[in-house]
Amino acid sequence: MGGSGMDGSSGVLEFLATKEGGKSPENLPNPGGLRYGPKDDFSVDCAETPQIPATFWRVRGKRAFDLAFSAAFLGTVGIWLIPIIGAAIKLDSPGPVFFRQRRTGLNGQTFTCLKFRTMRHSPGEGFKQAKQNDHRVTRVGRFLRKTNLDEIPQFINVLLGDMSVVGPRPHVPELDAKFSSYVPGYAQRHLIKPGVTGLAQVSGCRGETRSVREMRNRVRFDCFYLRNAAFGLDMRIVFWTVSTMLGGDDRAY
What three-state secondary structure class fits 14? Predict the structure, then answer.
């Protein structure tokens, strides 16, 4: 499948509707009333080295969109929303407004990923995945996680060039070390910039990753996105992300 072949194609919907993707057709987000396509084989062999076409979107368009979207969002929404969220965090619990964490990005290079702090401030505590009903999550933090508003500072990462608006979600090095040897194609996630949102997230892959099977499912979506990144697919993912923010995500805890 070509890099631009997913624009307007129902193939992405067919792929997302597979049992392995965790979605059934009746529960699949379907903006615009698009119909499901024929039962083509949209499975992805993540163990294969991907052939990534150098489309205009990948080479020029995606970065231009990242800069324009992030600057517009921060300049119109972030300029007033960030101070409000920051004040709520400070009133709710002692500690900094922002949480900084090393994440793995393009070509396996680490960078400092920004988020709003959603947990009690515990300097020196090592990495530990958030669990359902995690006692470390604050009251404000629980709301921010459910609505994905805790990710807003990552648009600064996008402007800095560390991230993209859409792409595989960046993992901490500890998760990379834990799963990279057991999940075929895991390293392919690092062939494209990580995203503020991504195909795996809007398809239900959220929350704690407890098993190799769960990580394989996430990586399968990442591999599919890597091979099919295009303007149309990115716009759908952004649309689905906004829909999730408005409705709340029960998997985001």
Answer: helix
